[in-house]
């Protein structure tokens, strides 16, 4: 569940047909797609083309999202989110409201996509996501409420796109919206300052969340959230284990850009893809062996964990 610092009192519902006050574009509403902290999103048609329309109670919040969408779709950076098509006002039950229409992204939310296609896709999608975040960060924003539900995988090109820009915050401010499961402060790993490392932390938690089975993930709810728990999951997971270094670095805020994290993840992904069968077998064998090899890998993991986390652990427990 998204936590927001400015919950809207009442989110209006769109009528079946409406026309924008200034641009005069007419929309036919097909169905509601979702409703949350900032507004409601509808699937509509406009001039025979499908559009997603977001309407909110607070005009300023909607305009803030418009501002972000506009800034990230300049030049070649149009892959971050849906393309913005129209911004206008309308009157609902005598009350003026602001809405925007955007490209309708046909596809699946990332969590559903992984459930259907398999966990092998997790790293591929996270690498793509990091490229999108890199562009957003370059424009001075932090996404904030990063979670699988806010990431779409398009049906046609299998491209990752961000949706729901309601939590996007200017770097340096306090994060406006977050979801506990992916929130750095909730995992006792830092504060809620909108900085690049906040998004990278959420991306790393997302990777773990998507790669493990729901039962394992649920067990995190019964404990005090701490990154040590995440490290333990990574150590036990064949899919996550090769990515332990970038994941740990993200947990401990060691990256200054999403591009850096992406490059390191991509190297591992390439390595695994090229030498997939041999390498996986080798790692599994080492982990199963109780002899020197297996101990070596575990030992290395613990050593890197301690090295990276040492200072933070000290701060937490002292
Ligand atoms: N451009 C789009 N194309 C297709 N579907 C979309 C698009 N934008 C939003 N959606 C769908 O609408 C749902 C609600 O959208 P969004 O998350 O932006 O709204 P919200 O009301 O701000 O919700 P939240 O509580 O997460 O902030 C999403 O889960 C998604 O399925």
From TrEMBL:
Top-level division of the source organism's lineage: Bacteria
InterPro entries: Kinase-like_dom_sf, Prot_kinase_dom, Protein_kinase_ATP_BS
Transmembrane segments: 291-316
Residues the record lists as binding ATP: 54
Any GO molecular function: protein serine/threonine kinase activity
Keywords: ATP-binding, Kinase, Membrane, Nucleotide-binding, Serine/threonine-protein kinase, Transferase, Transmembrane, Transmembrane helix
Domain Protein kinase, residue spans: 27-301
Protein name as it appears in the record: Serine/threonine protein kinase
Lineage of the organism: Bacteria, Bacillati, Bacillota, Bacilli, Bacillales
